[in-house]
Specification:
289 residues, Helicase, Ruva Protein, domain 3, Tetrahydropterin Synthase, Chain A, three-stranded antiparallel beta sheet, 11 helices, 10 strands, 49% helix
């Protein structure tokens, strides 16, 4: 059966697949577009399963704010080139919207959520088939607060901040600060006791070799521990826009307090594979031959 250009065009618009893939699917199904779509979906799932073990440490972060809710999502792929694909960007943005809409408690629930007639996992698998890379929705988190602000540093770093009091401008300034300084906790009170003790033990061991009296060593340890706690807590850090005051003083002046924050950086915690670029190009050339 002869396949017309109009059939290929319709299948391409509906599936988002490459032209030659659409033509081959139509030829295999005698021009039946619905059967061709089903065939391509099955093949896309098979391709996605094969690529699932490949390291995906590139990608994007997206944020969506809806009223008193803010969602942050990270979607990963294998290269920064694919991270710019419109389909992948739309997947991340729609995922963030789905999280704020509610009813999504974990990645499995998000994958099964339906948007536009297909689940997020089906969209992801279709992207894998079309783009040839492992793609996954890695993580998400949602904050609820009276005042919310966020900041995206390019595609790779995203921060959302929740406040009681203050305004959206202050929340955004704090999100920019967090993007730059990477605090681990909001305040000293949030630092777990075991982390404090571990750092104190290290400082005591370092000071023990100084030969100074015990009371001097104790003061040295207390001072250094307080400095460490200030460095890892948002409230203790000098505000990036005005280093003469801490974030805590900034918030007090505004009559505000931070209820929580989330900072995502693409690929953090993922062990990347070291590859030889020349060998990688040759491998791709052999695969396409």
């Amino acid at each position: 059966m002869a396949i017309t250009a109009a059939q290929v065009k319709e299948l391409r618009e509906r599936s988002g697949a490459a032209m030659m893939d659409c033509k081959r699917a139509l030829q295999a199904t005698d021009g039946d577009i619905e059967a061709a779509i089903e065939k391509m979906r099955k093949e896309g799932q098979a391709k996605a399963d094969k690529k699932a073990s490949r390291v995906a440490a590139e990608g994007i972060v997206r944020v969506h704010v809806d009223g008193g809710k803010a969602a942050i999502v990270e979607v990963n792929c294998e290269t920064d080139f694919v991270a710019k694909n419109d389909g992948l960007v739309a997947l991340a943005e729609d995922a963030a919207k789905a999280v704020t809409a509610g009813g999504v408690s974990d990645i499995e629930a998000l994958a099964a959520a339906n948007v536009g007639g297909e689940t997020f996992d089906e969209r992801r698998r279709n992207l894998v088939a079309n783009l040839g890379e492992n793609i996954n929705i890695r993580r998400f988190e949602m904050l609820e607060a009276d005042t919310l602000g966020y900041y995206l540093h390019g595609e790779r770093i995203g921060v959302v901040v929740g406040l009681t009091g203050g305004d959206e401008s202050l929340a955004r300034d704090l999100a920019m600060h967090i993007a730059a300084t990477k605090p681990e906790f909001v305040s000293v009170d949030d630092v777990p006791a075991d982390i404090r003790q571990q750092e104190k033990d290290i400082l005591v061991a370092q000071a023990a070799d100084s030969g100074k009296p015990a009371e001097i060593i104790e003061k040295m340890v207390v001072g250094r521990l307080n400095k460490y706690l200030a460095e890892i807590t948002l409230y203790g850090q000098p505000f990036v826009k005005d280093p003469d005051q801490t974030v805590e003083k900034l918030l007090k002046a505004a009559g505000a307090s931070v209820t929580g924050f989330v900072r995502y950086e693409v690929g953090e915690g993922i062990e990347k594979e070291e590859t030889n670029f020349a060998e990688e190009v040759m491998a791709q050339a052999r695969a396409s031959a």
